[in-house]
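Suppose a colleague, Dr. K., hands you the sequence of a protein chain of 221 amino acids and asks what its three-dimensional shape might be. Before reaching for any lab equipment, you can write down a predicted structure in token form. Begin with the sequence itself:
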Amino acid sequence: MLTLLHTSPVHVPVFDALRDREHPGLEMRHVVHEELLAKARSGGPGAADSAIAAVLAAAVGEGRTTAVLCTCSTIGATAEAYGARLGVPVLRVDRPMAAAAVAAAPERDTVRIAVVASVDSTFGPTCDLIREEADAAERRADIRTVRAEGAWKRFEDGDRDGYLDLVARAVDAVTGVDVVVLAQASMADAAARTRDGRTAVPVLSSPGPGLRAAAATVRQG
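The predicted structure, expressed as tokens, is then:
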């Protein structure tokens, strides 16, 4: 069984729909802990580590979990690191997206990547992950961070359309890059809201590739 660790309940229907469309029969369960993101944002690096470890241990301790997918980019690196201690794979949803971003524009020596996020705490973990994937691929990555101004307030207020529209606006303002990365899983649907003509530059999101990687891990296990 795949356990998905979320820091917002809005991700539950997104991943259920992906499962039904692309991975029918995949057994999943959702664990939502909003306080993990709050601790990570307010306390800085390491503030949520013990809480993340406890949540993961509880999920795996029930005995049916064969893999965990963390859907929060801010805490993804910490969650992934605990996998070795738990005895089951803990995947971060944004790693396949980061690998795809690094592989963009193969004709260039350096791939130019814009990372769009609505909360600043996401930039560090996402940029670090992209650099890690670039090193593994022996490529250079020129990373630009773009904040979707005002979007997170819309998210907190439950205004999903307003949130996605502001993310799409931030993407539309980006120029001079080879690929755009939507750093948070909640942003995925903003790609469809960008203006006409953006199709020349790929806009990548994490839920689809992340769930495909996790489903493959479950099948192999």
